[in-house]
Amino acid sequence: MSELKEAIPPKKYAKEFYGNCPNCGCGQVEGKNIDIASGDVGITEMHQPMTCTECPAVWTDIYVLDRYQNPEGFTNPIPAGDLL
Fold this sequence. Notes:
This protein has a domain at 10-64: Single Sheet (N-terminal domain of TfIIb), CATH 2.20.25. The chain is built from 1 helix and 4 strands; from the N terminus they run αββββ. It has one helix at residues 10-17, and strands at residues 29-31, 35-38, 44-52, 58-64. Strands 1, 2, 3 and 4 form a 4-stranded antiparallel sheet that branches. The chain is elongated. The protein starts with 9 loop residues before the first helix and ends in a 20-residue tail after the last strand. The relative contact order is 0.17.
């Protein structure tokens, strides 16, 4: 188990430490099934319960839908410049 002096803040975890425990810093984490929560139009989050196998920490990772890719069979064109 790594020795962190304090827990990793949520935003820093998402940008720099994803895949490690935000409590102890170790890379021994396990994720459960992802739940998709749709709310208002344009806001979709996916929640994944996480646990650390080295310490008693549990938390939820949150994923936000960014885009789709590999469109096939579309009968309407995608506007130029919006394929990224």
